[in-house]
Amino acid sequence: MAVVDVLNSVGEKVTQVDLADTVFNVPVKSSVLHEVVKMQLACRRAGSAAVKHRSDVSGSRRKLFRQKGTGRARRGDIKSPLLRGGGVVFGPDPRSYVYRVPKRIRRLALKMALSSKLQENNLVVLDRLELNQIKTKRFLEVVNALKVKNALIITDKKDEKLELSSRNLPDVKVLRCDGLNVYDILKYRSLVLLESSISDIERRLLA
Description:
The protein has 207 residues and is an alpha/beta fold. Helices cover 35% and strands 15% of the residues.
């Protein structure tokens, strides 16, 4: 098992914790991470792009002028795609981009993402992070004491004071353990785990 130092809110070492090798020390394959991240981003797409087709444009179905004898092109109604203001022929319609990667692959990718942070020495374990009030300044002091920038902080349960104190910082995100995902782990440079959340992560990935 990998042994990692546990720090307090002022950046001092207080103890150590063992991390399961089956979760935090697995071989990292970029192809697996890429597939899962691509799936997550596809599922986030709104798919709401749409145009008006010929049947959606308001206007008369009357033929604009007679078929022959005018010397002009043969015209149908005013909603023709060839005319200004007419319908669009091959434009996009609302659709869903959602697709799923097998559950075992998603779980493996999550293990690889956690392992990559440990291998790059960008994994920090914090004993606790409790704020007396909603205060961004106090939260920023803790982040600076840990010497982490662009960090994802994982908690084991909902902490409204912590979540509201961090939301104004563009390079820091607080995420609950049950929302842990590959994209957010890879997006942020440092991963900060509350010590109480480690058991929940290992139980989720070893189930």
